[in-house]
Amino acid sequence: MPIRLIVGLGNPGPEYEQTRHNAGFWLVDQLANSLPGTRLQRESRFNAFVAKTAIAGREVWLLEPQTFMNRSGQSVGALARFYKIAPDEVLVVHDELDLAPGIAKLKKGGSAGGHNGLKDISAALGTQDYWRLRLGIGHPRTTASQQAVADFVLHRPRKEEQVLIEEAIEKSLRVLPLACEGKLDIATMQLHTV
């Protein structure tokens, strides 16, 4: 199935803009900026920034929920129902503690792994069987930090981490046209072997 909805996860507001938890927003912002005539606009019925665009010649929706992370499912569920988009046509882009900065992985289904945005989306879609693009942000334990996870994700990455996250976003953007054509196996292989 081709991807018809790409969701970037993050928290709204300038105080969260540069935090690790907003990596999904960063990717969707860059994707929108790279596509001619594509501009994310506030859509109150979905409580989100939304854009309709074309990727690989196919109609694709871009979505950035403005509900705060733990209520992301409200926006995702509302748009998916309205446009009759099946869960396996949804790709959710989010920060991933269990991957190092610079690593990006595609996968379908699986648990939320403690990610409140994914938990809420799974509840709204009635399944965990949707695609995820996981952008590594690292974990405080890997840097011998005593920082709590909640605190870690709501802070800016260190400069060297930011560079690596940007590289992972670039790699991810290159395989998204394949995902939108329904060639997710090829997209996954390319992303994971780069």
TrEMBL record:
Taxonomy, superkingdom: Bacteria
Keywords for this protein: Cytoplasm, Hydrolase, RNA-binding, tRNA-binding
Localization, UniProt: Cytoplasm
UniProt-listed Pfam families: Pept_tRNA_hydro
Catalytic activity entry: an N-acyl-L-alpha-aminoacyl-tRNA + H2O = an N-acyl-L-amino acid + a tRNA + H(+)
Binding positions for tRNA per the UniProt entry: 16, 68, 70, 116
Residues at the site labelled Discriminates between blocked and unblocked aminoacyl-tRNA: 11
InterPro entries: Pept_tRNA_hydro, Pept_tRNA_hydro_CS, Pept_tRNA_hydro_sf
Site (Stabilizes the basic form of H active site to accept a proton) residue list: 95
Main location: cytoplasm
EC code: 3.1.1.29
Active site: 21
GO MF annotations, alphabetized: peptidyl-tRNA hydrolase activity
Matches recorded under HAMAP family: Pept_tRNA_hydro_bact
Family per record: Belongs to the PTH family.
Quaternary data: Monomer.
Known function: Catalyzes the release of premature peptidyl moieties from peptidyl-tRNA molecules trapped in stalled 50S ribosomal subunits, and thus maintains levels of free tRNAs and 50S ribosomes. Hydrolyzes ribosome-free peptidyl-tRNAs (with 1 or more amino acids incorporated), which drop off the ribosome during protein synthesis, or as a result of ribosome stalling.
Designated name of the protein: Peptidyl-tRNA hydrolase
Protein source organism: Janthinobacterium fluminis
